[in-house]
Amino acid sequence: MSYRIDPRLPLTGEVRRILAEEIGKALVHLDAARDRPEQALHKCRKRLKKVRSLLRLVRPGDEIFCSTENQCYREVAALLAEPREATALIETIDRLAKNFPEQSAGGGLDAVRDTLVARQHELHGGAGLGAAIAAATAACEDGISRIDKLVLPDQPEQAADVLAEGARITLRRARKALDKAGSRGDADDFHDLRKAAKTHGMHLSLLGRLWPTPIKARRKAVDELGEKLGELHDVFVLRTLLDAGERPLGSAQETRLLSKLLRRSEKSLKKTCLVAAADLFGERPRRSTKKLARKARADLAAEPHEDASAPGAAA
C-alpha cells in the first residue's frame, strides 16, 4: 500500500490504513534505533512527520481526534529530537567543508567536528536514549490502538471539502511564514516555513490523485525547498550553540572559521529559500484549494465507493 489517499475508497478507511502503516513503520525504526541510532532515529522522525501531516490534512473532519493525536506524536518526536540533532550537526559540519573546500582545507573545522562527535557518542551511548526509545515505542503502540476512533465524512462532497480545507490551512501557514521570513528573517520564521513546506509536500503525496494541477514538478520543488530549509535550520542550531555562554563547541580560536562559514551559509540559504518559497506559495491559498475541492468532488463522485451489499461484491 502507499502514502496516498485512494479516491475510490471511503476516506475514513483510507486514513486509518495510512496511519496504521506509518506508525507501524515508525515502530520498526524505533526498534532498529537501539543498535543503529544515527539513521534509524531520522527515519522514525520522518514517519512521524508523515503521520502528523496526514492528521493535519483531515483535521477539519474530526477536530478532537486529530488535534489530540497530533500532539501525541509531536511529543514522541520531541523525545527523539536531541539524539537525532547530534547527528545532524555533524552532517552540517561536513556540508560546510564540502561547500567551502578552500577555506576548510587547513582543518579549521576539525576541532569542532571532534567535539560534536563526542557529544553524539555521549547522547547515543547513555541510558537516556534507551528510555526515550522505550517511551516513544509505548506511545506509538498506544496510538495504533486508538486509530479506530477516527471517524471522517465519507460522502464524496463532504470528504472533498475536508481535504481541501486541510490543504488550505497548510498553504495559508506557508504563506504567512513566508511573509514573516521575508520581512524579519528570524530563525523561528524560517522554521515555521520549513514545517509548512514539509507538510505541504506530504499533502501533495496524499492527494496525488486529486490535486488539480500537474504534481510532479511541484513536488520536486517542494522537496528541494524542504532540504534547503533543513540545512538552514541546522545552521541556526549551530549558531545558537556557538553563541552559548559556556562555549560548548570550543574556544574562540577553534570556532573562528565555523563562525565565518555559518554566516556565509546562512546568507546564501536565506536568499535561495525565499526565492523558491515565493514561487511555490505566492498564489492565494483559497484560490488553489478551490480548484482542489472542485476536482476532488468530481473525482470522488465519478468513482463511487463499492457497496458491499451489491450483487457481486466481495464477501
Can you offer a commentary on this structure?
With 315 residues, the protein is mainly α. The protein has a single domain (11-302), classed as CHAD domain (Alpha solenoid). It is built from 12 helices and no strands. The chain is globular, with a radius of gyration of 22 Å.
Number of strands: 0
Mean pLDDT: 90
**Low-confidence blocks of residues:** 306-315
Largest sheet entry: none
The CATH architecture would be Alpha solenoid
CATH H-level superfamily title: CHAD domain
Find the CATH topology.
CHAD domain
List the helices and strands and how they pair.
Blueprint: H1 11-33, H2 37-58, H3 63-79, H4 81-99, H5 101-104, H6 110-125, H7 127-146, H8 156-183, H9 187-206, H10 216-243, H11 252-281, H12 285-302
Key words describing this protein structure:
315 residues; mainly alpha; CHAD domain; 12 helices; globular
Provide a short characterization of the protein structure.
The protein is mainly alpha-helical and 315 residues long.
